[in-house]
Amino acid sequence: MQTAMIVTNEARIIQKARKGLSMVAAGEDKTMEGWLIYGAALNEGREMFPSDEQFGQWVRDQQLAGHHVWEDRAAAMWAAGNPEDFKATRKANPRVRTVRGLHAKLKEKDKAPKPTLKPTEDDLKTMGRLQTLAERGATEGERSAAQAKLDAYSSAFGDHKEEVIEAAAVAAKREEDSIPHDTQVQKLKLALTRAGSDFLAEWLLKAMVKDHDLFKSVMERLYK
Fold first, then answer.
1. pTM score of the predicted model
2. What's the longest Cα–Cα distance across the chain?
3. Which residue did the predictor score with more confidence, 3 or 184?
4. How far apart are the C-alpha atoms of 155 and 117, rounded to whole Å?
5. How many distinct helices (H) and strands (E) make up the chain?
6. Residue 131 has pLDDT above 90, yes or no
7. In which band, very low, low, confident or very high, does the pLDDT at 40 lie, cut at 50, 70 and 90?
8. How far apart are CA 215 and CA 121, in angstroms?
9. How far is CA 24 from the centre of its chain?
10. Average model confidence (pLDDT) for the chain?
């Protein structure tokens, strides 16, 4: 009983494929519809065979290739199996009149190089902090959360992910080096208490002039 059903189903698929080929041969008005019917039938037939070789042999045995090359069959199967992609590609390429041409346009689009997203300095600093936290976090949960955020952040840069992470490590080291350590702070404090430190006074004044809030705070403290 099951064998009879398989044979009947196969016969239906073959009939459907031949109908599609007939419509293709009928002319331009029926060509695209014919390719879709033909492709849908071949997609059904493909499910009956575990290998490309067996499927190709079945197509030849049932004389379903017509006078067309394999690219036509592949395009028809793509169009029937991916209606949304087919419609979008057809809309984007209104001058292309064949299903094979539309399939070629889709493959060209897939091969087009993706634009490279370059990280900003802020991106690198953020990733650098996450990387530091992932390595030195106080708890396992903190380290895991930082690593997850770092992975999500860096994935935006695709194939350049490793390069970006390396650059982020450099940025983190640069930022870390720019922050005074306790010993440096103590040395500066000692120097400031010495009399006649004209060099320090000059440069600190320059720094304070650039930071109005800092300058105001120092002036208020000196003359309160």
1. 0.49
2. 108
3. 184
4. 11
5. 12, 0
6. no
7. very high
8. 28
9. 38
10. 77
Cβ neighbours of residue 34 under 8 Å, at least 6 residues apart? 19, 20, 21, 22, 23, 24, 25, 26
Structure tokens at 77: 């199967």
Task: Report yes or no: 156 and 117 within 8 Å, Cβ to Cβ.
Answer: yes
Query: Which residues, in sequence order, are CB contacts of 30 under 8 Å at separation 6+?
Result: 23, 24
- 6: Cβ contacts below 8 Å, ≥ 6 apart: 48
Instruction: Please report where in the chains the tokens 């490309």 appear, as a residue.
Output: 52
The answer to whether the beta carbons of residues 21 and 39 sit under 8 Å apart is no
Spatial separation of the C-alpha atoms in residues 169 and 108, rounded to whole Å: 37
What secondary structure does DSSP assign to 173-185, as a single string? HHHHHHSPPHHHH
> Cα–Cα distance between 144 and 137 in angstroms, integer?
9
Q: Does residue 59 register a pLDDT over 70?
A: yes
